[in-house]
Structure formats: structure tokens, C-alpha cells
Design goal:
By secondary structure, the protein is an alpha/beta fold. The protein folds into 3 domains: about 15-65, no CATH class; about 70-260 and about 395-485, Aminopeptidase (3-Layer(aba) Sandwich), CATH 3.40.630; about 265-390, Alpha-Beta Plaits (2-Layer Sandwich). Helices cover about 35% and strands about 20% of the residues. The protein is built from 14 helices and 19 strands. The strands form 5 sheets. Strands 1-2-6-3-7-17 form a 6-stranded mixed β-sheet, sandwiched between helices. A 4-stranded mixed β-sheet has the order 16-9-8-18. The longest helix has 24 residues, at about 40-65. The structure holds zinc ion. Zinc ion (ZN) binds near residues 144, 176, 177, 210 and 237.
Length: about 500
């Protein structure tokens, strides 16, 4: 079991508690016959009491406004409804999810628009906007509605039933990223319900297509709607309240994604004469490919510490020796596809004329793709192996992390988890933030609920699930972050 230190209090105690302590001390010392420490008269006592009431009053008003138990319960309820909508991509139809958001937004008076990018395939994006005074540029809450598909045979429960079991809620998208979507949704609804005056617009954007290319989702929005969005900041996926990710201990570390690695997909191919398996040929395409791949497999890319990772290490100390941390500190190469046969099912007695393999390479933000590929060619050192690009990396921008929003995230997580540490983080996979960073927005990947490495591994895998507690915690902190950051300052 995971131990989580969770304070239910949302009240900032640094002023109230010392005052209360002082009052109790004063009160008990004046009522204690032997007390010699402090004597005050009745009228002084009354003024002190009045002072306390003055301090408590706004706090009481504030905490009366939000019934957190109710909000958390509704978050769980809406999350389960949303999770149960099958939005696997492919096929990537998110029409029902878009409709889910639209209906509730409309009912609760939040201006919302559905942006269809392909009606036939159910590609829709949901844009809702709470207007502020316009003093500052907007904050956008970004989430994708689509999920990766499921391999049903690997699941112990129905992946689209949003089942509650042993403190968890199961379902495809539970951590990637319907959990983000719901806390962003609840945050927007709560700001509206509580009539919070804003210095900047809060924009809620739920998109299609993230799990493929983003073409009919974020990429489309950036191309066609950027001028009206014009957000200074974006909160997206790419960070969690992590436990056991970066260090060996289970310290709660809030990772805030500030940049991501670049995706480079390479297809290698080799050709040779085909023929009967009974008569081996020297130039067997499969042997050429296997030798090339074995050179790649034994190559170790060098460690290279980028600025966000250097800052993580500064705040956390040495990172544990894990596959996750390995990926944070170097360019990586995964062999994901091999194909070298004839027939379906493959014929065992035919030497194929062609062998192919796909390398999924992830480059650190400051690495040059051409340099990387020429190094790889040198390592393979065989002109018979041809290189083709499936996906070329686009520039990876690092968002600054000495900003007001980063500070607010740090403060609001600390208010609930005083022992936690917040760190800037290099996201090892791709997110839609890349489109918005190129428009100059500072994008942070942030989910303020605790997630263990064991749970994290279910993303894109089997039995994807989130702890119910984590979701409940996340909605509070998320709301507090957005409210503190956007609320009109007097
Ligand atoms: Zn995602």
C-alpha cells in the first residue's frame, strides 16, 4: 500500500494557528490562579477575541463556499461517466465525449463551442471560455479525449466500465488523460459556480486525435484558432505527483513537464535474393538486418544532462538507476518493429527478399537529428542497410520554470503536502504541448494527484487505473492553482 500524507485542510494556517495558540495561551494563563506569565484584563481579552474573529471570518466564508466532499464526489461520478465513453484511437471517434462536456457546460452556464474537424469520423474539439478582465493573457487547460486502444485479453476488468475496485477506478484513459480532463472540467465549472472574478480568461480545450498525430486536434486548433486563444500559459499532461519515479524512496515529488523529448522514427531496410530455405544464401536480407540491429543493440548512447534534468538533480539528489531515469538522461533507441518474411501466416521455408525494422528514437531537446542519424549509420556501418524517416522530430522548446505559475503550483502542492518537492521535468514522450510551445505559450504538464511507478506503467498498457484518492486530491489542488493564478487581484 502507498502511504500518502494528506491534509484535508484548505485553510492557510500560517496566520490563524499562531493567533489561536496565542489566544488559548492567554486565556488559560488568565484563568489559571497560579499563572504568573501573563495577565491581561477583560477588555483586552475581548479585543483579542474580536481580532481572531476578524481573521477567521474570511476563512469561514471561503471554506463555506466550497463543499469539498460534494465536489470530490461529483468529480468521481463525472470521471466514471467520462471514462466509460469509449474513445479509443483508432478509430478515434470522440463525438460522445465532446457531447458529454458540452451538455454539462451549457447546463451550468459556461460558454462552450464544439469545433468539428471531421464529422464523419467523430473528430471534434471542445472549447469553453470563462472571461476575465483581460488584464493578463489567458491560461488554457488542455486535455485530449482520445485514448490508445486496448488489448482486451490483457485486462482483468472491462476497460470501458469505469469499475471501482480496491480503491482504484479502472479504465482506458484513467491516467492518460481523462483524469486531467475531468479535474480541468471541474475547475472550470467551480470557477463559474463561485463567480470568481478573473484577471485572465480561463480556457478549457478538450481535443481529438492526440494519440495519432494531432492533425485534427491540437495542430488544427493552433492553425485555425490560435489568434482567439492566445494563451500565455497552458496546463497539459506530462507530470504527476510521482512516487518512486526518480528516487528510490517514496517521497512525493510533483514533476511539472516543461519540455519533451523529440520523436524520431526510422525505418531500416535491407534487400537480398529470395529463395528456398533449403539452399542458404550469403546475402540473406534477414541476416543483414539482424547483424545491423545487433550493433544498434550493443551501442550505449552517452549520458547528456539537459537544464531541466540538471535542476531535478539539484533539487532531488542523485536519480535512481531505473529505465525511466535512463530515458531522462540520454537519447534512446527502441527496436519496435521487425518484418522479414513472406506469406500470411509467414512461410518457414522461404527466404524473403526484404527485411525491415523500425527504430523508435527519442532525442533530448538540444540534440541534432542529422548528427544522431549519421552516428547511427556509422554504428551500423553497412551500406546495404537503407534509412528512411517515418517521423522527423520538430524543435523541442523548453518552457521557462522561473515563472509565477510554476511558483503557484509549488505553493499549492506544498499547502496540501508540506513534505513534497516540486521539480521541472523533461517529458520522455510526446504531448500536444509541442504545438503550443511553438506559439510562445509556456506549457506545463501537471497532475496534482499521487501516482506510483506501478500505476504509471498501466498507461498504454493493461488495467490502466487511478487511485480514487489521487483524483480527489487532484481536483482540490488543481482548482486552487488555477484560482490563485487567475483570480483578479485587488
Ligand atoms: Zn496522453
Amino acid at each position: 500500500m502507498v502511504k500518502v500524507l494528506y491534509s484535508k485542510s484548505v485553510v492557510k494556517n500560517d496566520v490563524v494557528i499562531p493567533l489561536l495558540t496565542l489566544y488559548i495561551k492567554v486565556y488559560s494563563s488568565t484563568n489559571n490562579k497560579e499563572g504568573i506569565a501573563m495577565r491581561i484584563n477583560r477588555s483586552q481579552k475581548i479585543s483579542l477575541f474580536a481580532l481572531l474573529v476578524l481573521f477567521f471570518f474570511p476563512v469561514l466564508i471561503h471554506s463555506q463556499k466550497i463543499n469539498w466532499q460534494e465536489v470530490e464526489d461529483r468529480t468521481v461520478q463525472l470521471f466514471r461517466q467520462y471514462l466509460a465513453i469509449n474513445t479509443c484511437n483508432p478509430p478515434g471517434d470522440v463525438a460522445a465525449a465532446g457531447e458529454f462536456f458540452r451538455a454539462i457546460f451549457e447546463k451550468e452556464g459556461v460558454p462552450v463551442e464544439l469545433i468539428w474537424t471531421n464529422k464523419n469520423t467523430g473528430r471534434v474539439n471542445v472549447l469553453a471560455r470563462l472571461r476575465g478582465s483581460g488584464k493578463k493573457r489567458p491560461l488554457m487547460l488542455l486535455n485530449h479525449m482520445d485514448t490508445v486502444p486496448v488489448d482486451r485479453s490483457g485486462w482483468s476488468v472491462d476497460p470501458h466500465a469505469a469499475l471501482k475496485k480496491d480503491g482504484y477506478i479502472y479504465g482506458r484513459g484513467a491516467l492518460d488523460m481523462k483524469n486531467f480532463g475531468i479535474v480541468q472540467f471541474m475547475t472550470t465549472l467551480l470557477l463559474k459556480k463561485n463567480n470568481i472574478a478573473l484577471d485572465r480568461d480561463v480556457i478549457f480545450l478538450a481535443v481529438a486525435d492526440e494519440e495519432t498525430t494531432g492533425t485534427l486536434g491540437s495542430a488544427w486548433i493552433v492553425r485555425n484558432k490560435w489568434e482567439e486563444i492566445n494563451a500565455e500559459y497552458v496546463l497539459d499532461e506530462g507530470g504527476f505527483g510521482t512516487q518512486g519515479f526518480f528516487t528510490k524512496d517514496m517521497r512525493l515529488i510533483f514533476s511539472v513537464g516543461v519540455a519533451e523529448k523529440k520523436v524520431l522514427w526510422l525505418k531500416l531496410s535491407a534487400s537480398g535474393p529470395s529463395g528456398h530455405g533449403s539452399m542458404p544464401l550469403k546475402e540473406n536480407a534477414n541476416f543483414i538486418m539482424v547483424q545491423a540491429l545487433s550493433r544498434v543493440a550493443s551501442h550505449v548512447t552517452p549520458i547528456h544532462i539537459t537544464p531541466p534534468v540538471a535542476e531535478m538533480i539539484r533539487r532531488l539528489g542523485k536519480l535512481a538507476d531505473t529505465p525511466y531515469n535512463n530515458a531522462l538522461q540520454r537519447n534512446t533507441i527502441s527496436l519496435t518493429v521487425t518484418n522479414g518474411f513472406v506469406g500470411n501466416p509467414p512461410k518457414s521455408n522461404v527466404i524473403p527478399g526484404k527485411a525491415e525494422a523500425v527504430l523508435d528514437c527519442r532525442l533530448l531537446p538540444d540534440q541534432d537529428q542529422n548528427e544522431f542519424v549519421s552516428k547511427l549509420k556509422k554504428i551500423i556501418d553497412d551500406p546495404r542497410v537503407k534509412f528512411n524517416y517515418i517521423e522527423r522530430p520538430i524543435e523541442s522548446i523548453v518552457s521557462p520554470y522561473d515563472t509565477e505559475l510554476f511558483k503557484v503550483i509549488e505553493e499549492e502542492t506544498k499547502a496540501v503536502f508540506p513534505d513534497s518537492i516540486t521539480v521541472p521535468h523533461l517529458v520522455i514522450y510526446g504531448t500536444d504541448s509541442r504545438f503550443f510551445r511553438r506559439k510562445g505559450a509556456s506549457c506545463y504538464g501537471f497532475f496534482p494527484g499521487p501516482v506510483t511507478m506501478e500505476e504509471y506503467k498501466t498507461i498504454h498498457g493493461n488495467d490502466e487505473r487511478i487511485r480514487e484518492d489521487s483524483l480527489r486530491t487532484a481536483v482540490r489542488i488543481y482548482y486552487n492553482v488555477v484560482k490563485s493564478f487567475c483570480e483578479a487581484k485587488k
